[in-house]
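Ticket opened by: R.M.
Priority: normal
Category: complex prediction / small molecule

The reporter submitted a protein together with NDP and asked that the result be attached to this ticket for the collaborator who will pick it up next week. Submitted input follows.
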Amino acid sequence: MSQGPNYKAELVGVFGHPVAENPTILMQEAAFAALGLNWRYLTIEVYPEDLENAFIGLKAFNMRGINLTIPHKVKVLQYLDKVADDAALMGAVNTVRVEDGKLIGENTDGKGFINALVKDACISPRGKRAVILGAGGAARAISVELALNGASHITIVNRSVDRGEELAALLNEKTDVKAEFVEWNSVYQIPSETELLINATSIGLYPDVNNKPALDYETITGSMTVCDVIPNPPQTLFLIEAARKGARTIDGLGMLVHQGAIGFAMWTGKEAPIHVMHDALAQVFHLK
Ligand code: NDP
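Result attached by the on-call engineer:
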């Protein structure tokens, strides 16, 4: 039986506000093109009060999935049929996939960080002692995945006490890691036994490129692996200083690409062309 033409694209995208500067479309559309898939990634402005209606629209349009960004990552949970265990632990979802008409919530941010660490840098988190700067969404995702992937000890260093204490308590109660909280109210000295140092704050994000976390950079050593979540610019002042001290560095662009690649695979069922996605973003970030 001959098949007629199929002009219908499969739809995914992102709901956010503000969302106009979200670059994910570039890497996902580049990946669809590289694999010859008739898929489209739509960058959709959704105001906070319209999130429920946006999901009615998603179902009506038979979309295959959606990313969530600021401010929807937490509120989205109430509109989903199921939430993956790690995302439930974080209390945040950044990727929804549609499976047999059901909306399944996932969080690929922390998994993207782990993949950048394990696949790109060949470093296992198992048994490692980590210091994480920040206690917001990125820090929650990374610390939960580090704990689930066998890190032995996590120190959360954060400016606001409530957020930091809450995250350390969550890690201690719900995972096997030993977590502690340190208030960040002056220049922080990195403990010498630290193996992974991660900036999970927004300090250094374009256009704030001349800023870096308040640390005693002399306490960074060559035995540490130093990671940043900031994807733009990939070479932050934080990473440049750490490299000067002999530390191995991992940039936030890798994490961003890996979390997108996990989403791509969840939606399409195909392995993501990581290098194509990386190049699509690197081009725009390096131009800035
Ligand atoms: P949140 O707003 O949830 O958290 C921000 C964190 O940064 C908080 O811990 C906040 O501390 C801290 N912070 C901000 N400014 C300062 C400052 N001047 N001094 C000390 N602490 C500060 O943001 P997210 O966690 O969602 O995002 C953080 C960064 O991670 C963003 O830049 C984002 O681009 C990046 N990101 C990267 C991803 C990737 O794939 N590469 C994925 C997700 C996010 P406090 O609690 O005291 O306010």
